Amino acid sequence: MPDAAARLHAIRAALADAARVAKRDPAEITLVAVSKNRSAEQIEELIEAGQRHFGENRVQEATTKWPNLRRRHPDVVLHMIGRLQSNKAEEAAALFDVIHSLDRPSLATALVKAGWSGPTYVQVNVGEEQQKGGVAIADLPDFLEAVRDLQITGLMAIPPAEVEPAPFFALLAKLVQRHDVSGLSMGMSGDYRAAAMLGATVVRVGTALFED
Ligand SMILES: *Cc1c(COP(=O)(O)O)cnc(C)c1O
Fold first, then answer.
1. Which PANTHER family does the record associate with it (predicted)?
2. 36 CA to middle of ligand 1, Å?
């Protein structure tokens, strides 16, 4: 089995295990392969191994890589997971199927203007970190009210680095319940098992899928 396929199967198995421990249905958890900085060849190895959901964090990079790949693999689902500039909203709306990084009203306005109607996650700054994108927890109720024109599927977060992520995952899960959405986009290479146990419906895994 090629290495990429082996890594994919190992991560799928680990997610299924985590789901079982938490008494969840593994089918509730979507694995998004984060393919930023990876070549089309690396991506196609994973597609051949059965992976369908991919995530990119920059519109420009995605625009150079994905139109070709999409023609060859029309059933791929492409997720925008990085900070999105309003002036790229139109390009993003044309290229992506899901957006995980709605974090300010001006971006919502730009997306509505671009005709975007796909599943959208609101990014929450769960660690209240100054340098990080995301809506502050205290602002979340007003923000969700203000972006009602979009199809808000759920919440997304990137917990602070270098600290135990589980409390932040639990916090995001609580916010999802409180605000009556269902999608929970959380967990990366180092912590996708913990995220899956704490309710993630989407995990975004790059390094662990593409590197040994
Ligand atoms: C890069 C990235 C990931 C994946 O990170 P890994 O640690 O490589 O798995 C997940 N989410 C976002 C928003 C990213 O930018």
1. PROLINE SYNTHETASE CO-TRANSCRIBED BACTERIAL HOMOLOG PROTEIN, PYRIDOXAL PHOSPHATE HOMEOSTASIS PROTEIN
2. 9
| C-alpha–C-alpha distance, residues 111 and 22, integer Å | 36
Rounded Cα distance between 201 and 15, Å, is 11
CA separation for the pair 176, 167 (Å, rounded): 14
How much distance in Å is there from the Cα of 180 to the middle of ligand 1? 26
CATH code that applies to domain 3-210: 3.20.20.10
What is the Cα–Cα distance from 47 to 134, expressed in whole angstroms?
31
- The residues spanned by each domain of the chain are 3-210
The two structure tokens encoding residue 121: 């996650």
Ligand 1, residues at Cβ distance < 6 Å: 34, 36, 57, 81-82, 158, 188-189, 204-208
Going residue by residue through the chain (212 aa), what tens digit of pLDDT does each one get?
A: 669 999 999 999 999 999 999 999 999 999 999 999 999 999 999 999 999 999 999 999 999 999 999 999 999 999 999 999 999 999 999 999 999 999 999 999 999 999 999 999 999 999 999 999 999 999 999 999 999 999 999 999 999 999 999 999 999 999 999 998 999 999 999 999 999 999 999 999 999 999 98
